[in-house]
Every structure is written in structure tokens, then in C-alpha cells.
Amino acid sequence: MNRSKPISGELLRLKEEIHQYAIDFGLDFYPVVFEVCDYDTVNILAAQGGFPSRYPHWRFGMEYDKLSKSYAYGLSKIYEMVINTNPVYAYLLKANNFLDQKLVMAHVYGHADFFKNNLWFKSTNKAMMDVMANNGTKIRKYMDRYGQDRVEEFIDRVLSLENLLDINVLFESAERRNQAPKDYEAMNEALREQEESDRSQALRSFMRSKLNNESDDVSEGEEEKPEEIQVRAPLNERPSHIEPRDIMKYLIEFAPLEEWEADILGCLREEAYYFLPQRMTKIMNEGWASYWHSKIMTEKALKSSEIIEFADKHSGVMAMSRQNINPYKIGIEMMRDIEFRWNTGRFGKEYNECTNMEERENWHRPTNVGREKIFEVRKTHNDITFIDEFFTREFCERMQLFTYKYNPRSGRFEIDNRDFLAIKQKLLSSLTNFGSPVIEVESGNFNNRGELHLMHRHQGVDLDMQFAAETMRNIFYIWKRPVNLTTIQEETEVTLHFDGKTMKPLK
Amino acid sequence: MDHPIKRDHNRFRKIVKGRIRDNLKKYVSNGEMPAPKGDGSYKIPMPSIDTPRFKFGDKQQGGVGQGDGQPGDPVEGQEGEQGQPGQGEAGEGEGNKELEVELSLDELAQILGEELSLPNIEPKGNKTMASVSEKYSSIGTVGPDSLKHFKRSYREALKRQVATGTYDDKNPIIIPIKSDMRYRSSSTSIEYENSAVVIYMMDVSGSMGDEQKEIVRTESFWINLWLKSQYKDIEIRYIIHDATAKEVDEDTFFRTRESGGTLISSAFKLCREIIQSDYNPDDWNIYPFHFSDGDNWSTDDTKLCLDILDNDIIPASNVFCYGQVESRYGSGQFYKDLHGRYGEDSEDVTLSKIKNKEAILDSIKDFLGKGK
Q1: CB contact at 8 A, B183 and B140
Q2: Which of B59, B76, B83 sits opposite A76 (nearest CB)?
Q3: Coil, helix or strand for B157?
């Protein structure tokens, strides 16, 4: 049953038109495939992160429940969805009016260009649609074999680790990408073999087989029984081939996992890394897409009768709240600001060191390299470097930003200050490590007792301790030995020890 | 076939139901009652099921916003209330909102039943309440086109053509005419159901405070829920009393507060009247519930109460239930009187003391645990 249909008729003509505008503006993208679907399908897709087929897990059901309800109550509506693959798939909501579709298409071309050209996306697998579907098939098979509850429980635990990623992994992946298809074949073959012969032969997880390929080890898969828990020698030192924050990989290699567990961990890790660049470039990506939808619409695609409605829709998207910054708004304004500055020569040593406010204000050297500059920016930056480099004092003041914090005396959040450096600092720290705490593996043999030792690199904000305890419970389940976490709580360093039941500070 | 996400969705609902079961005691004793929706389902608020992760504590973090205001001004407004296009592509929703779960009456009653291991009620009396239901189980010769039965119509036409000799097996074209047409038609079936009535009586004299009423309210909600799941049709009547009794609607029942003395017999008399005039005990399953703090005006009145119970109410009822809500002012004498008369394991009378909100669930089990 096909829930979404390729576009046809008027929409197809519209797509061709917008496509041409995008090319004329110099955007560069993989082919874009638009499909229309009804709201239910959009909700399903959104619940599954944009992909039509995922592994079975209740959290997709929960997401779907939420989305369906907020759609039914008219609280929110998903206009569009686009996924980073080749070709790029984008979904249009059937019930949207023509102008909405136009706007969405223009927006999508912005994303498509960004997906293809931004360096942080270089290693993402453009055939992710298939990978996701394969992971789903694999996990479903494991569920058939080991029981749905057992597998789902394991997935629940692994999802706790989903944000313990290391961004450096994104750049080691050319080899990883080449390896992947081979491993899938090996994987599938193993599965097939087992089904046919029904021997109790251990599965070769793709991470394992990759390891074997690298080190040319003797294959140990043959004698191993699936039930047998393999205990590896705990490590005193961090292995050099694993990035310190890549905790999922560390566990794949060193936790006493069964084959299927290691395989699932591998699958989920792969999916987590696929989504990572999108988390790292939210502001830029949305800013870029918004910049281009606004450009294409106002300069090319809009009919004069549509302008008011477009302005209404556009401003709805750009609205800022007092609680959060809107990545669409900050993104598009910064892109425009950069273009303006590089068009008027407001960059470089001379401008930066100019202290005469009036001169700065009226600075004009017709350098006219603005467009070029933003194309370069979209290629090389991520949100952190983007804010760090282009978030200027003038821009900050124009945007009327402020920082806020919790006031324990009044019990509410209050505006803290409007100081440029403080705001920038806050923005940067909220983006550091894609908004997650920095947690590193310190040792797999803490106290010489085979315990896991994690280190929280504290950067001014304490961890949520209730969540930390629950997370450590899940890591304990995977590591099967006590887990320790060194962090800073209320300005004192503590090491918390989780022994499977309770979490206690270690003296 | 449905999309696989429906399975994920069912799985999610199963988990949610498990959570509700685990936390039923909390829900009940907090007096957080599921809000009924128009379509017969109930909304239950519950905290979102978050996957635990290492994350920052909320309070220290603060953030960046936009707008007017001086330092020290509150940052109001709802977090993330803006619907944004293109939200889907990141696949990264941080959902902290409360979940609102919808359960049908039956699902909710099932949870209650499983948690308290309540037996199903064996109704007494004949099934006399006629409930009419229509089922499309037969075929008729007239009807609207939307109910046309193609296969039957075809068969009729074929039969007719074969019989009249117009059927040609070289060129088997069947043309139905009007008299061949067959339609699904409904037949009315009358099923007899057990009928039940619940009569709540409550002491609203000065000694029953708001907390006591809240307990009664919570308890009656869950009792109703269970009985509704057991009987197809159920009627509920409310009586309040101090020294005199009157019948009221549900809203008044839980709101009214009177001062003055307490004559429990007044309520029992009214209850007797209601039963005698409206509910024939042979046809109806009758559940009188009485809640008070145990104070009665005089021993004479208590004697009168017991007489009414013995002669009229108990013989007519499935089970007579008395719940005594502890209050600072009540003496609790009435419980002792009833206990002295009927003892612990009477078949026809259930007594329960409700100390506080935590005890509601146990008391519900006392009342409904007999399966009557």
C-alpha cells in the first residue's frame, strides 16, 4: 500500500519552475523527489524521523500519538518534511494550499543544497532509506528469535546512550561508509544461513566482522554459543582507535554483549550518527533554507496576489518567543547580515579595529562578495563556528536578545542581562557538543575492578541527577558491572557509583 | 494492512496502561480523576515517558530569548508554542510535555479490576431490560442502493436467466433486473439485559468536611466505573441527608454542606421509597451505598435504621454497603452498631472504614470484592 504519491499535474509544473529558480540562483543539490500524502502519513513519517520504515519500537508510537493529537486539536501542523538522502525525498501535505506548497518547495531546495554541500554532512549515508529499512528487518528478526520484550528492553537501554556521541567520528567515516554495504551482506548471509540450517551458530554482527577484517583475527564466531556471555579483558587505558566520547562504540567493543546485542547497538549507533549533523547545524540549515525560500518567493515565484498570504506565513515561521531562540529567525537574519557585510566591505582587520562608531555605522566599500561568502559559510561551518564567527555585537543588539535564568527567590525565569558577550556565551554553550553534556569514557577498569568510569567534562551546568541515575542504571545493564561517573555538583567534584541498585557518592 | 506504526502505537498504549496500573493507587488517592470525554472515553494525564539520558539540569541552564524588558522581568509564555514548518526533518523532538492518554471505560475498568483482582459480578434477577439492537443479518428485496448485495443479486439474475432460458454459456452476460436485486436488511433483535441501580446516600451534616466529601466523590467515581463496566445500563440516584433527606442531582450531592443534626433513618426511609416506587427488586440489581462519619442523633434512630435495613433495604438489594469516612468530629458509633448486628462476613452487608485517601482503593475492594 502506497501511502504517498508522486506529485503530478500542477504541482509537478510548480516543482519544475522552482527547480529552475534554484538552479539559477546557483544552488547545487541531488535530485529532489516530492511526494504528497495525507496528514496521517505525514504524522507517521515525522514520528519515524522522516523515514517510511524503521525498527519496531514503542517510542515511534508515542511520537505518533502526540503528533496525531496535536494535529487533531489544531495545535500544530507539519507543513513539510525533507530527508537527507540521494535523491532527496520531501513530503508535501495534501491538504495544504498552493501557496504553502510553493513556499515548502522553495524551502526544501534550500535544505537539499545544504545537505549536499555542508561538510558535516559529507559522511552521512545517502542511502539511509535502505539502511533504516535493513536495520528494521534485522531487529524484527532478532525479535522473532529472542522475543519482542527482550529486544525492546535492550533498545530502551541503548536509547539512553543515543546522545553520547563524538563529532569527530563524522570525519573518520569514508572507510566506514565503504565498509557498511559489505557488512550488511555478511550480516544478511549469516542470518539466512542460520535460518536455513538452523544451527546454533553465532551471528556475526557487522561491527564484529569489521573488527575481524581489520585485525585479521581468528574468527571466533564458530564455536561461540549465543547464550554465552563473552567477557573481554577490561582496559585500564582508553583504546586509541575509539574517540573518548564515542561511548556507544566503546560499549560495542568492550561490554560483555551477546552478538545480537552488539549488532543492535551498532545499528542504533549508526542511526544516531546519521542524525548528528542535523542536530549540529539546526540554525544554519533552517537559516539557509529560509533565506532561499524567501529569496525565491519574493524575487521569482510569487504572484502579486499571493504576497500578503506569503508574508503572513513567513512571519509565522520567523516568530521569536521570549523563551527560546527560533533557529529559522536567527539563521536567516545571520545569513542576510553576512551577505550585507561582505557586500559592503564590513569585514577584515580595518573594519574590525575601527572604533569610530559613526564610521562603522556608515561603512561602505563595495566589495560585493556577499553571495559568494554565504555559499562558503554554508559549506564549512556548523552552528557553533557559525555563531562564534558571525554573531556580532551589532547583530545582537538589532535582534533585541537577552539571556534569562532561574531566580530561586521568585521561583520563575527572569531576564538576566543584555550584555553581548554573555548572550554569545550562552548561545555557544547551549550549542556545545550539540546541546548534550560532554561525557567521556575514562576507564573500563576503574579501581582495578572492571568497573566503567565515565567523566563528565563540566562546563558550568550540573547534570540532572535523577536522569543521570536512570541513565547509569541502563549503562549498568549493558556493562554488567558497576558504573561510575565523575561530575561536579554544586561546585564540588563527586564521583558517583552505581552498583545496580542505588547511586551513591564515592568517598 | 495497517502501517507498522500502528503496532508501535499499540505497544505504546500497552506500556501506558501498565504505568497507569502501577500508579493506580497514586491516581486514586490523589483524587485525580480521569476526565470523561463526550465519546465515553476518559482522559488521564500522566508524565511523558522519557528515555533517561545524561542531560543538563533545567534550572541552572536558562537560555536566550528575544523581546523587550529590563533585567529582572519575568520571561513568560509557553515554551516552544510556535508551530514551525520543517520541524520534522531533524528527527529530534525533545518532548517534555505531559502525555494525555485516552482510555475507554472498559479499559479503565479492566485496569481497576486487575489491580484489585475484582471478581465479575453475578447479577441476580431475570434479564428484563429490553435492549434493542439492529443487525444486518438478513436479505430483503427492497432497500437502498448502498446496501445492495451484489453476490446475491447476481445469483438471482443468473437463476432467472437459466430458468427462462436466456442464459447463453458462450456469452455469459448476466443482466439483473429490478426484481433480482437483493439488499442487506436489518433484523431487530431484542436482548434482555440485567439492569442495575446505584443509590448513594451521604451524610452532609456539619461534621462531614470537604476532605471527607472528596473521599466519597473519588470512591463513588471508581465504584460507578466498575459497575458501569459490569452492567449495560445503570441508573444512579443520589440522596443527601442531615436530619431530613432529599434526593438531589450529582453536582449537588458533592457540593452541599448543611449543618444540623443527623438522622440516618431519614435517608434510609427515602431510599426505601425510591426502591419501592421505581425499582422492583426482582428485576433490578440494587446497590445502596451509604457514606457518613458514623454519627447518628440517637440510639433510637439507629434502631429504626436497622429495622429499615433488615425489613426493606437488605432484602431488596444485592448488597448494602456502608462506608465510614473518618472525621475529627465523628464518633464512628454507627459502624460499631452495624458491625455488632451484621458482623464481619455478612453476605448482604459490606462495611468499610476509610481512614484517609490512601485507604480508598482498599475500601473499593471491600465493597466490590464479593462479586455481587
Answers
A1: yes
A2: B83
A3: helix
- Window 161-180 of B: residues touching A by CB (8 A cutoff) are none
For chain A, the structural domain boundaries read 4-118, 128-277, 319-432, 437-505
CA angle, corner B112, sides to B316 and A154, nearest 5? 165
β pairing state of A80-83 and B195-203: unpaired
State the helix-helix crossing angle for A307-318 and A282-296, rounded to 10 degrees: 170
> What is the gyration radius of the CA atoms in chain A, in angstroms?
25
**Structural domain spans, chain B:** 1-49+98-117, 129-190, 195-368
**pLDDT of A181-202, one tens digit each?**
444 455 555 555 544 444 333 3
CA B263 from centre of chain: 31
Lateral strand order in the sheet of A438-446: A438-446, A451-457, A483-489, A492-498, A503-505
Nearest residue to A486 via CA among A459, A464, A458: A458
Comparing CA positions, the residue from A42, A71, A206 lying closest to residue A135 is A206
Residue with cell 432529599: B246
First-to-final CA distance of chain A: 61
SS3 content of chain A, % helix, strand, coil (to 5): 55, 15, 30
**Nearest by CB to A111, which of B52, B72, B89?**
B89
Residue A356 CA, distance from chain mean position = 42
Stretch A391-398: mean pLDDT: 90
The helix or strand, by DSSP H or E, that contains position A403, with its residue range, turns out to be strand A401-407
Domain B195-368 belongs to what topology?
Answer: Rossmann fold (3.40.50)
Sign of CA dihedral A107, A108, A112, A118: positive
Measured CA to CA, the distance from residue A284 to residue A165 in angstroms comes to 21
CB atoms closer than 10 angstroms to residue B233: 12
Query: Which three cell numbers mark A372?
Result: 559568494
**Chain B residue with the nearest C-alpha to that of A115:** B89
Note whether A147 contacts B: Cβ–Cβ < 8 A.
Answer: no
Q: B66–A322: do the CB atoms touch at under 8 Å?
A: yes
Question: What is the mean pLDDT of each successive set of 10 residues along chain B, which is 372 residues long?
Answer: 83 85 78 72 74 77 77 63 33 47 82 82 69 82 89 92 88 88 86 82 80 84 85 85 86 77 86 88 86 82 86 86 81 82 79 84 83 72
Strand residues in B194-304 grouped as ranges (E):
195-203, 233-241, 245-248, 284-292
User: Chain A interface, mutation test: which of B6, B89, B99, most A Cβ atoms within 10 Å?
Assistant: B89
